[in-house]
Amino acid sequence: MIIGVPKEIKNNENRVALTPAGTQELVKRGHTVHVQSTAGVGSGFSDEQYVSAGAKLLPDAASVFAIAEMIMKVKEPVEQEYNLIRKDQLVFTYFHFASYEPLAKAMIATGAVCLAYETVERIDGSLPLLIPMSEVAGRMAIQEGAKYLEKPLKGRGILLGGVPGVRPAKVLILGGGVVGTNAAKIAAGMGADVTIMDLNITRLRYLDDVMPKNVHTIVSNEYTIREMIKDSDLIIGGVLVPGAKAPKLITRDMLKSMRPGTVLVDVAVDQGGCIETCRPTTHEDPTFIIDDVVHYCVANMPGAVPYTSTLALTNATLPYAIRLANQGWKKAAQENMELRNGLNVIQGEVVYKAVADAFGLGYTDVKKFL
């Protein structure tokens, strides 16, 4: 198969979809890999490393899209890439369709096969290609939240871990999944007073067992959220509904009960966000303030630590990419339920129900194509 790796062009997105090591694994299996020049530089990989691994360099994205049967990306295509995608071309990347209707309609119009990292799902419900970036984003959420609690950045002026004789910051984490667990680890390690809220009591029992004593667990409901946010200093939104929009757990009216300088970090923003007032921001301009509450809503948080993120992501995606390249998307999806779950749009038809439901689009059972 001919595989293409274009350079990411989203604001401050420095990750790359394939490392030189991954390139070598594909090339030694008889596949051809075309990489756009400088695509890996932001993650610390030079053009020379890709060439040494067997890749062929191309000067621009248009050349990569034109030749490739499978495009490997990190972030969803942006508007200037829409017209580069061809009918029947396989695009393997994060899409997060349910949060952005223009992207969904554009990909339907291309007639391409869109296989989304975020909906590749195992039989146990885990999301193997979302997990590594959720781990990064969960840990970064505390790192960034702690920074924006500083007074010069309009926060409350609180040190996350406090000092002897002064209480630490109160951190509220909505969601006890991968994001929430990783956020809690870092916040607890920094000495904060941490509370995780989730609907799943079994999950809360597990977290209560494994987390240190400064992490508490509470069952999530609207009443309790309204009470908890009144004296929380840093609130992390880490709720995920696979392939669908996140539920709004913090509404506009709730901001008035928060103290000035409270910081909100909505890690779910690329799926529409679980905080009503959040809108996607960039690393260039990461925050905005509503009712004296600081909102940090960067949609590609792991892009700020591209070396770590690229290695973590490609460790997870490479086995799937090899299977797709060896078998083609159709046979791979027939034989592998995880990849079948990743199919969102095929040749102009939506085959992932949550995406169809999000925008009232027609839904086609994926079996039609397999």
How would you sum up this structure, described in words?
Pfam families: AlaDh_PNT_C (PF01262), AlaDh_PNT_N (PF05222). With 370 residues, the chain is of the alpha/beta class. The protein is 34% helix and 16% strand. The chain has 12 helices and 15 strands. The chain has helices spanning 20-27, 47-52, 61-67, 79-82, 101-110, 131-148, 178-189, 201-210, 222-228, 306-335, 337-342, 353-359, and strands at 2-5, 32-36, 56-58, 70-72, 90-93, 113-116, 170-174, 193-198, 215-219, 234-237, 263-266, 287-290, 293-296, 343-346, 349-350. The longest helix has 30 residues, at 306-335. The two termini are 19 Å apart.
Task: Describe the secondary structure blueprint for this structure.
Elements: E1 2-5, H1 20-27, E2 32-36, H2 47-52, E3 56-58, H3 61-67, E4 70-72, H4 79-82, E5 90-93, H5 101-110, E6 113-116, H6 131-148, E7 170-174, H7 178-189, E8 193-198, H8 201-210, E9 215-219, H9 222-228, E10 234-237, E11 263-266, E12 287-290, E13 293-296, H10 306-335, H11 337-342, E14 343-346, E15 349-350, H12 353-359
Helix pairs in contact: 6-7
